[in-house]
Design a protein that fits this description.
Order of helices and strands: HHHHHEHHEEHEEHEEH
Structural class: alpha+beta
CATH architecture of one domain: 2-Layer Sandwich
Number of strands: 7
Strand order of the largest sheet: 2-4-5-7-6
CATH superfamily of one domain: Histidine kinase-like ATPase, C-terminal domain
CATH class of one domain: Alpha Beta
Radius of gyration: 33 Å
Number of helices: 10
Distance between the termini: 43 Å
CATH topology of one domain: Heat Shock Protein 90
Shape: elongated
Strand content: 5-15%
Largest sheet: 5 strands, mixed
Length: 334
């Protein structure tokens, strides 16, 4: 803050220096004026100026320090009372702007909540005809047509599911229920839901679970696993997807490995960015770049770390590292 204050008062400092140099110049040019007393006066002036400068620094920066350290809760009551007319103007304008901003935030939050509720209601309404379609597809005797319709039905179902969770993610911390979750049951349930797609693409699963339980929220973990499996199936053909779980350094790790087209090294740092699709496959218009973005957004509140290892044409491995119980205790007080 001292550097900023000096920059702010630079013109006053230069004026003081200029006046002292002007007095010395006048004393030098006029022999009638003794130089020694002038230098003594300038020395005293400098001492007084330095003390004055330091006192004014502490007094004038107190208010601005409180602004600089102002928290993100938009609470203007934490600001230091204004000591000068200019500070009073600044505080008044900040209070007015903060009140306006709070009103806008409250209004936008209500609008967002309404839009979320309307969309969720619409998604749940759409699920009813989807369920009816599934029952109708089951009665089709032509296996080729049945497989094609089942695949298209599954695509619609997954897109709706993704949209549903996308709207819930901003509020997911209010919806978490941390418990011991059966990994095998959860993983096999997700594999079963994707069975028709896997059959169509000739994809099998090799499940090796060294650890059968993990401490997390089952509903959101299901969503994360579903998105990663969907990704693996989408970019693989006639191969096995390997799912493993083991304990490493007192933490459970779950890996999902495919033998698909892989990911370019330059794309890995941007993999979880919203809307990002592979630079090597921009012609893939079906990719939305939302799946892995949502995976990361859902994993963060669960304290799940996601690592990616991939090589082009050799496949990709996503590894989920779960927190130990102590890390959840700090946050949830379990």
């Amino acid at each position: 803050m001292i550097h900023k204050y000096i920059k702010e008062r630079l013109s006053w400092i230069f004026l003081f220096i200029f006046l002292q140099l002007l007095i010395i110049a006048v004393a030098y040019l006029d022999p009638a004026i003794p130089m020694k007393p002038i230098l003594y006066i300038i020395f005293l002036s400098l001492i007084i100026f330095i003390f004055f400068f330091l006192i004014r620094y502490h007094k004038e920066t107190k208010f601005f320090k409180s602004i600089d350290e102002w928290d993100s809760h938009l609470d203007t009551s934490v600001l230091t009372p204004a000591a000068t007319p200019f500070e009073a103007i600044v505080k008044q304008k900040m209070t007015e702007q903060t009140a306006r901003l709070k009103r806008d935030i409250a209004k936008n939050r209500v609008t967002m909540e309404q839009e979320k509720d309307e969309l969720l209601a619409w998604i749940h309404e759409v699920k009813t005809p989807l369920t009816a379609m599934s029952l109708m597809i089951d009665r089709i005797s032509d296996h080729t047509v049945k497989a094609q319709l089942t695949y298209e039905w599954l695509r619609i179902h997954l897109l709706l599911d993704q949209q549903l969770h996308q709207k819930r993610i901003p509020f997911m911390e209010n919806d978490l229920y941390i418990e011991k979750t059966d990994l095998q049951q959860l993983i096999f349930k997700e594999i079963k839901s994707l069975r028709s797609w896997c059959i169509q693409k000739g994809i099998g699963f090799d499940v090796q679970l060294g650890v059968s339980e993990v401490l997390t929220d089952a509903k959101w973990l299901s969503f994360i696993i579903r998105q990663l499996l969907t990704n693996a199936i989408k970019y693989s053909d006639s191969s096995d997807i390997i799912i493993k779980s083991d304990m490493d350094n007192e933490q459970v790790k779950v890996s999902i490995q495919d033998s698909g087209r892989g990911i370019e090294a330059k794309d890995l740092p941007r993999l979880f960015e919203k809307g990002f699709t592979s630079t090597a496959a921009h012609q893939d218009h079906a990719a939305t770049g939302m799946g892995l973005y949502l995976v990361k957004k859902a994993a963060d509140p669960l304290l799940i770390h996601i690592a990616v290892a991939s090589k082009p044409d050799l496949g990709t491995t996503f590894t989920l590292t779960f927190p130990n119980r102590n890390e959840f205790v700090k946050i949830t007080g379990m």
